[in-house]
């Protein structure tokens, strides 16, 4: 069962996690355009009929790009409206967080000029920077062409993460970016899929960000850590998630934690605890990760 949480006040999570700060955080770019992808991923090969589906958005800048969940952004907007209505009624609920098993909370920031890739993920409300190996893909461009979304596209093949990808890019949109970690072609990648169609990025629309106020930048003061340390600290946080949620919320009579499932039904604390215990006892259903060689 998918679950999301409203956390109305934030408190930094402290744990045994190695931290540093990156100069990359000071670099900023302005979004000149954006492209939406309908992302499909067969995470469990025993349940191909039930793949993960999510809407993703890629912001394109002059020298940086940012890839994140559009599904998450829409859900957060719904929560902002609800919180705004509650604030109008005199309640003191200011900040919140969202969490769902099938919604991506991480963001990817790519800088081709400096060959840097930074992943941003959260533990509770606190964001962390996680540097990753810069993806280098040796593309083979073919003479095959087709029209996608009204744009003339050309076919290319490339291996990455243990998968062979077929992609379609358009020189008519001269950005060397694409969905997720796929990039490096002389034009924007509009569509991509691996050889088994276990991973698909389907074109969902392109938009010029005229007079855009969308900034492509890492969150201010987000500490840098390793993936190993991050996952260890996140597991510790989620092991006592309800306790940590209560620690985040201040002792204010007008502040409370609200738990709801995907249908909007509110959960009791006992229902939430039972759900988390059930999830902890489940075997990991992801036997087909995005990167097979990790």
From TrEMBL:
Region spans: Disordered: 273-294
InterPro entries given in the database record: GLPGLI
Keyword field contains Acyltransferase: no
Compositional bias segments (type: Basic and acidic residues): 273-282
A UniProt-annotated Pfam family: Porph_ging
Residues forming coiled coils: none
Signal peptide limits: 1-25
Keywords: Signal
NCBIfam families: GLPGLI
Protein name: GLPGLI family protein
Lineage, highest ranks first: Bacteria, Pseudomonadati, Bacteroidota, Sphingobacteriia, Sphingobacteriales
């Amino acid at each position: 069962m998918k679950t999301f949480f409203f956390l109305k006040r934030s408190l930094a999570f402290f744990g045994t996690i190695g931290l540093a700060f990156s100069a990359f955080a000071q670099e900023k770019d302005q979004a000149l355009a954006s492209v939406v992808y309908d992302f499909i991923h067969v995470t469990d090969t025993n349940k191909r009929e039930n793949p993960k589906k999510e809407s993703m958005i890629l912001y394109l800048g002059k020298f940086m790009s940012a890839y994140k969940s559009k599904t998450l952004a829409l859900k957060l907007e719904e929560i902002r409206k609800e919180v705004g209505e509650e604030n109008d009624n005199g309640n003191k609920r200011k900040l919140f967080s969202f969490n769902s098993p099938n919604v991506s909370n991480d963001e990817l920031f790519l800088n081709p000029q400096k060959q840097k890739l930074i992943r941003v993920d959260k533990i509770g409300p606190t964001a962390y920077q996680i540097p990753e190996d810069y993806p280098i893909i040796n593309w083979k461009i073919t003479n095959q062409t087709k029209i996608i979304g009204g744009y003339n596209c050309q076919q290319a093949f490339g291996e990455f993460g243990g998968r062979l990808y077929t992609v379609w890019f358009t020189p008519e949109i001269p950005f060397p970016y694409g969905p997720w970690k796929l990039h490096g072609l002389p034009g924007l990648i509009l569509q991509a899929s691996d050889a088994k169609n276990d991973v698909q990025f389907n074109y969902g629309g392109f938009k010029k960000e005229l007079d855009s106020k969308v900034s492509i930048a890492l969150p201010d003061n987000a500490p840098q850590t390793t993936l190993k340390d991050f996952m260890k600290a996140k597991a510790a946080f989620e092991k006592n998630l309800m306790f940590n949620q209560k620690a985040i919320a201040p002792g204010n009579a007008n502040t409370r934690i609200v738990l709801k499932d995907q249908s909007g039904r509110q959960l009791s604390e006992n229902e939430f605890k039972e759900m988390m215990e059930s999830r902890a006892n489940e075997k990991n259903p992801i036997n087909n990760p995005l990167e097979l060689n990790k």
